[in-house]
């Protein structure tokens, strides 16, 4: 993974042949042309839960087209850091009742969520190239 600086507040990560661009909102000195890194972090939680839910449905032949995940975040007013993240899996009325609890359990298996719950050790260094 490589991170490049692309002018202004735009930062791009290059990973496995993909480029993901970030920017800052106008209030933060950016041009708001892409999500902020923190928004991408939050999005990774919801999309990770989504991929687990989608896989569960695919394995059982349950259509996932009408499933929606809504994610909300509450913040500590002092630190600005999240205190509560809620993932609401909205299921269509015809979703099989017998799988409703299981969908919650598979969403809880999300690797991003598990990583937050068991944070790794971070190392920040400098080097020259």
Report on the structure:
- It is a single chain.
- This protein is an alpha+beta fold.
- It has a domain of 83 residues: GMP Synthetase, Chain A, domain 3, CATH 3.30.300.
- It has three helices and five strands; from the N terminus they run E-E-E-H-E-E-H-H.
- The protein has a three-stranded antiparallel β-sheet, with no helix packed on it. Strands 4-5 form a two-stranded antiparallel ribbon.
- Helix 1 packs across helix 2.
- The model has no long low-confidence stretch (mean pLDDT 96).
Concise account of the structure shown:
With 129 residues, this protein is of the alpha+beta class. The chain has helices spanning 37-60, 100-107, 111-117, and strands spanning 2-5, 11-15, 18-22, 68-75, 82-90.
Spans of at least 5 consecutive residues with low confidence: none
Q: Tell me the strand order in the biggest sheet.
A: 1-2-3
Shape: elongated
Radius of gyration (Å): 18 Å
CATH architecture of the domain at 35-117: 2-Layer Sandwich
Query: Which fold name corresponds to the CATH topology of the domain at 35-117?
Result: GMP Synthetase, Chain A, domain 3
Percent range for β-strand residues: 15-25%
What is the share of helical residues?
25-40%
Number of beta strands: 5
Layout: helices, strands, pairs:
Layout: E1 2-5, E2 11-15, E3 18-22, H1 37-60, E4 68-75, E5 82-90, H2 100-107, H3 111-117
Key descriptive features of the protein:
two-stranded antiparallel ribbon; three-stranded antiparallel β-sheet; GMP Synthetase, Chain A, domain 3; alpha+beta; 3 helices; single chain; 24% strand; 129 residues; elongated
